[in-house]
Structure formats: structure tokens, C-alpha cells
Design goal:
heterodimer, A: about 100 residues, 2 domains, about 70% helix, B: about 550 residues, mainly alpha, Cytochrome C Oxidase, Chain A, two-stranded antiparallel sheet
Amino acid sequence: MESIEEHRHIMGYGQLAVILALLLALTGVTVAVSYIHLGFFNVPLALTIASLKAALVLLFFMHLRFEGPVIRYSFITTVLFLAIMIGFTFWDVAFR
Amino acid sequence: MTAAQSYLEQSSPPGRTGWKAWLLTHDHKRLGLMYLWAILFWFVLAVILGLLMRTELMGMGRTIMGPEAYNSMFTLHGVIMIFLFGIPAIPSIFGNFFLPIQLGADDVFFPRLNLLSWYLFMFGGGFAVFSLFSGDGFPDTGWTFYVPFSISSAGNVSLTVTAAFILGMSSMLTGLNFVTTFHRMRDKAMGPMQIPLFTWSLYATAWVQILATPVIAITFVLVVLERFLSIGLFEPDKGGDPLLYQHLFWMYSHPAVYIIILPAMGVISEIIPAFSRKSIFGYKAIVYSSLAIAIAGSLVWAHHMYSSGMSDVSVFVFSLLTFLVAVPSAVKVFSWVSTMYKGSIAMSPPFFLSLCFIYLFTVGGLTGLVLGAAGTDIHVHDTHFVVAHFHFVMLGGTGFAFFAALHYWWPKMFGVMYRNRPAYVGAVAAAVGFVFHFVPMLILGMQGMPRRYYDYLPQYETGNFLAGFGAYLLVFGLLLMLLNLVFSLRNPRTAPANPWGGTTLEWSIPSPPPVENFTDSPNIKDFPYDFSEIVSNSNK
């Protein structure tokens, strides 16, 4: 059974500000690369940046970085579940 | 232990009396009872609707209702039975009551959230009723709300799907509470392989509730947006895809079938060893099969869509995956039967109902294979065969397990014993009525009788007439069992703490339990189904 001890992991304002700045910077990068013609790679690049931003929010603002294995595995399970739902649907759409 | 200390006499939080002690309670046991009465109300209502439909079908042509009323009846019957009975029944009533106790905890992890779940359930149910009497008529789409009809129907589909959305929220929060309680509130001495199988089944179910319910919630929001804004997500003439709706709907609604059946399997896994006086056969196999059913059951949704026009690759893949689910289900049936082998069987109403479950669920599972194989599925698609298969699993399976759970845990929940004879008579009538109701429907389906039709060709009249008689016998049995239980509260015969010789933690505390569940530290056994002490005591 997991420990019920309460872990305090309050981040300082400085650290939070750094994450916020990173998020804003990445938003700027997203806008900037949308003006560069990369053909097929425009969408994958935008999705990669968006995923990176989501990861920062999850890890620091939502404290996933500081949580124990149960919370981490629970989160990974939800992502896997979503991936399967979308992936399996493409067996229909891609081969119809 | 005195009666005054029981959860029925003492409120949580303390000091509240009268209606406040119930409507503002944080006690998981009181909430279990509040779900019980609400869910029984919906169950009886949906049974009556089903009986009216069956009565209509007993004769050709119009008998007691017209086609519009019939369409509304099967929609309401389905919506109520799925969203207000099947999904919440076992987790919300017995899960709420017994999951914390089986884990050695004093409550669920989020007691206030638990209360909110109940209010959402009541609000969602009220909303569903309200949707009937507003708009241009009763919803007539069936519980599946398929597009494009649900977008263009004059019935108040928007409110009905909003009700389902709210009920989904209630179900999801209950699942969240169970997963958290399982991990955070379990007694420190209880390892994973010391957890009772009912709780394991609720844990597997809770994950499905948490992960799958948001899909249907968003889908229903999209239906409402389609109705009001005509976005064109599901409409081909606007570039939309009606099959997308079916994918999204079944992504939740097939796992929902496992939300309904998995806790029922957990109930049976508790009852069979208790009345066989024998340790459960294949404890670990049952645990892993519960998890396997939860996972594999979430990957087979498109087997509802073989004839919808989706790709052949999808048909092949989803058919293959569907057959995989049969394996863990069969592992459970094998384990239950093996538990009884060379056991010291003590017949009782819950055990008898569990035997009915095993028989009816097995027929339901085997007819499911007919539907899982794409070739045979296309032959019986949208016929009475599908309806009969579904009812074999849902009513023959979950319904009988629900009644088995009621009879098994009733003495613990209320501290009273019921009369056995009416329980047996009711159970036999329900089981015989069930078979006479749904076996003709299997045959009618094979002969081509379509579902959701209020009239039929002359060759189907005999089968429909016979099925109607079975339905009346089934309903008589169900109501007799319910009345017998309710009357046990009027002339109570006090129940001992452990009337059945059970070994899980709920049988180690008084009946009814005290408000804090355990007055002393719970005695966690190395194995939850160790009957050596029970057997040696009964031999003395």
C-alpha cells in the first residue's frame, strides 16, 4: 500500500515564473513557425510544441513531477487509453 | 455493541438528526441505502415499461399502444435500465456500502464527493423525467441516440442526453472515489492479494468509469451542439461522418456493459465460496481476469457496427478482439464452478440466485460469440436475437447478481433476516420466467424478427405470445423477492453478525455496522477466503 504521508511540494514564485515564461515563449515559437513554410512538417512541429507545453503544465503546475508512482502510472494509463481510442478508430477511417 | 451505535441510529457527521442526517450525510453506508431506494424505484418503473411493451407484442397489430408510444417505451426502458439501474446499481449501492469495509477503512476517501455523486444521480434522474414532458414529445431514438435521427427527432433529445451527461458525471465521481479509496484507505496490513474479489471487481470497473465516461459526455455535448447549431460533425451533407458518432458512442457504451457486469461477477465471487464453505478456486486468476476484462472490454466497441459500413479491416480486427474477451470471462465461470466442486454446499437464496447467474450469464456469453463473429452477426443484426442476448447478460447476469447481492448483504445492511420461502419462490419464478421470455426471442431473432418494431408478420405471433407469458412470470418473481425483503423490515428478525459464515471483513463486524465500521482494528487475514475457522467451528 502506498504511503499516506503528505508530501509538501510547493514551488517558489520564481520557479513558477520560469515555467510561465517558457510557456509564453513556446507560444511565440508556435506562432513564428506557422509563418515558415515547412510543408508536411508544419503540423507535426506545432503538435510537438503543444505537447511540450502540455507536459510542462502537467509536470510543474499540476505537480505530476513530484507525485508517487500510482499517480504517474494512472496518468500514463489515461494517455495510453486515449491513444488506443484514437488509434483503433483509424482502422476504420484509414481503410474505408 | 448496542443498536444505538449502528450507522442507522448515529449520524455522520455526528449531531445531525432527521432528514439532515440523511440528506447531508457523509457516511458511505447511508449513501448506499439512499442509492438503494432511488435505484429500486427506477428499476420497478423500467420493469413496468418493459412489461407494457411485451404486452403490446403478445398480439399482432395495435393492442394497447401505437407505434409512437412503443418507440418512446423502448427508449425510456433502455435509458432507465442502463443509466439509472444497470450502471449504478451494484457499485453505487453495494460498492458504496462494502468497499470501504472490505478494505478495513472507515469511509471512502472523498465522503463529500460521494454525497455530491448521489445528488448528481438524483438530479440526472429528475432531468430525464423532465425531458419527457417538455418539447414536442417523448424521446424516441432508443437509448443509443444514433445520428442523424437524434439530430432531427422532434422529441426532446437534448434534455435526455443532458440527463445522461449528468448521470455519467455521477458515475465517474463514484469511480474516482473507489480508485482513491482502494489505494489510499486500505488497511496497512492488507496487501493486493489479500483484497476481496468484490472490491477488486469494483476497482477494475472504476477505471473503466473514469476513462470511458468522458467520451460519452463529450459525444452527448456534440449531439446537443448539432441540434442547436447544425455544425455538421455527423451529417454527411455538411462533410460530417455519422459513423464517427457510432464510434464515439460505443467507445463508452460497450465498456459500459462491462461497468454493469464486472461488479456482478465480483458479487458472485463472494457468494460462491461462502456457501461452498471452500476457498475460492483461482483467486489470482479471477483478479487478473477482472483487470483483463476491463482492458479488453474497452477495445471491442466497433463490434456493434459490423453492418454500419465501416471498413472490412475494422470488422476483422474488432471481431478478433471480441473473441479475446471471452477468455477471461470463461476463466471466471470455470473458477466459480471449480470452487463448488467438492465443497460443502449450503443452499440459500443468494446462492441459488448465483447459480441462476452462472447459467444465464453463460448462455448470454455464448450467444455473444454468435454476435462477435462478423458473418453470423450480419444474419441476426438488429433482430430479437440481439435483444435476447443483451438481456441474458444484463438481466440474467447483472440482474440476478443484483438480487443475489441484495439477499446476501441484506442482513448486514439492515440487521434483519428475511423469509427464505418467498425468496426461493420468487427466484425460481424469475429464473423460469426469464428463460420462457428470452429463449423464444432468440429463436424469433434467428427467424428474422426485427427489434424495435411494435408489429410483426404472422409467423412471429406464437413466439411473441409465449414470450409475453414468460415476462409476466419473470416480473412476478422479481416483485415477490423485493416485497419479501421490504416486509422483512416491518417484522424484523434480528440478524447475527455473520449469518452465512462469510470470511471477508464485513462479516467480522456487527449487523448493522457501527458508524465508524470498525470499533477495533480489523483483523486482516493472510487470505480473504480462508474457511478453516468457519469449517472447524461448524464441526464442533
